[in-house]
Design a protein that fits this description.
The protein is of the alpha/beta class. Helix content is 42%, strand content 25%. It has eleven helices and 16 strands. The strands form three sheets. Strands 1, 2, 4, 5, 6, 7 and 12 form a seven-stranded mixed β-sheet that branches. Strands 8-13-14-3-15-16 form a six-stranded mixed β-sheet, sandwiched between helices. A hairpin with a 2-residue loop joins strand 5 and strand 6. Helix 5 crosses helix 6. The longest helix has 38 residues. It starts with a strand and ends with a strand.
């Protein structure tokens, strides 16, 4: 049985251009409208932060603190399966804290999967056209739900990777100290690569059912895993030793799961190189809907769905397909738009839908 969850209240303080904002959200569709630059995306970012401990716009969480303020705080009241809980994020310029029911979270990986959420925003178009980083982060997010320990595995791998590189730069490729960190990299890297492989398998399966519903025509889609490492620790260690000189010159490890990637092909041609802008938009949205499917199956609940100005990135036919997803999605959806009239046909009951208008980071009357 798949359960639903929703944010009943969202309190935002000193976040981006928002000084103070309190939202009582509906259980199904919530439409945030307003002109560009008024804080709509910041509301989605705040919801994403309090649910996952991360931003979908920046790696530097200090950027989220409102200019002139000392700290930012986001608090969410969450209902799931008849139970309620709170999650809170507190950001200072040099530190961050996350709380579950007033208890500070010590393992962010466990915190990040308590309230599953999937966001689609304009930057996600780079999932197709951009470099490997975004696609690898997608694998990392899915791996966290499939194998919750993969977050800690990734952290240990990254620390060992940094230490090995410092030794290479300071003491050269013949230093025996490299052996210690290469062993750590091999052990953790093999596990992380295996987690990426499992995440890819789930993504590939979900994409096969999602993409045909989004594509305007029957275009053959292939999804291929491009491994950067292996799941055999001994082979991993041997590769690292053989690449020391090359890694010193390139200022980074040339082998490992930090180089795993996913490549999409349309009729045998690389989508990153040859897909039109329209095809890239459909593919990027299909990847996000596939992510939604994977998280739902792994977590056993319908994730929250955040859609940031999706109508500006899709043609009318694809926008209509997204509206069908919004209408039929059994859990909560929060949508931002500059054109609220596009959503007028989506639900009319006040119990199923709520509308908000933002101006300069504050609510205004509709």
């Amino acid at each position: 049985m798949t359960l639903a969850l929703h944010l009943s209240k969202l309190q935002i303080r000193s976040f981006r251009n928002i000084q103070q904002l309190d939202l009582e959200l509906g259980t199904h569709v919530n439409v945030l409208s307003g002109d560009n630059g008024q804080g709509k995306t910041s509301v989605l970012e705040a919801a994403y932060l309090v649910a996952t401990s991360k931003s979908f716009r920046t790696e530097r969480l200090r950027e989220l603190i409102r200019e002139g303020d000392d700290a930012a705080k986001v608090t969410a009241s969450i209902a799931e399966a008849g139970m309620s809980r709170t999650q809170r994020a507190v950001l200072h310029p040099t530190r961050r804290s996350f709380f579950l029911d007033e208890t500070r979270a010590t393992r962010l990986g466990e915190y990040a999967v308590r309230t599953p959420v999937v966001v689609f925003h304009p930057g996600d178009l780079e999932l197709i056209s951009g470099g490997s980083v975004g696609r690898r982060k997608l694998l990392d997010r899915l791996a966290l739900y499939l194998e919750p320990s993969s977050g800690d595995t990734r952290s240990r791998y990254q620390r060992a990777q940094r230490e090995r590189q410092l030794i290479l730069e300071r003491r050269g490729p013949n230093s025996v100290e490299c052996d210690v960190f290469e062993s750590l990299m091999a052990e953790e890297g093999a596990k992380l690569h295996s987690a990426h492989s499992s995440a890819f398998a789930a993504l590939q399966k979900a994409l096969q059912s999602v993409y045909p519903a989004m594509a305007a025509q029957d275009v053959g889609l292939d999804c291929v895993f491009k491994p950067g490492g292996v799941d055999d620790a001994e082979v991993f260690r041997t590769e690292l030793r053989a690449r020391r000189t090359a890694d010193l010159k390139r200022k980074g490890a040339t082998f490992g799961p930090h180089r795993d990637d996913v490549e999409l092909f349309l009729i045998g041609r690389s989508a990153r190189r040859h897909a039109s802008q329209g095809q890239q938009r459909v593919l990027s949205l299909s990847l996000k809907l596939a992510e939604l499917t994977c998280v739902r199956e792994a977590r056993g609940v319908h994730p929250l769905l955040l859609l940031d100005d999706v109508s500006s990135e899709l043609d009318p036919a694809r926008t209509g397909a997204v509206y069908e997803v919004v209408r039929d999605w059994p859990s909560q959806v929060i949508v931002t738009t500059t054109r609220p009239e596009l959503f007028e046909t989506l639900l009319t009951s006040s119990s199923e839908r709520r509308d908000f208008r933002l101006s300069k980071g504050a609510l205004t009357a509709l």
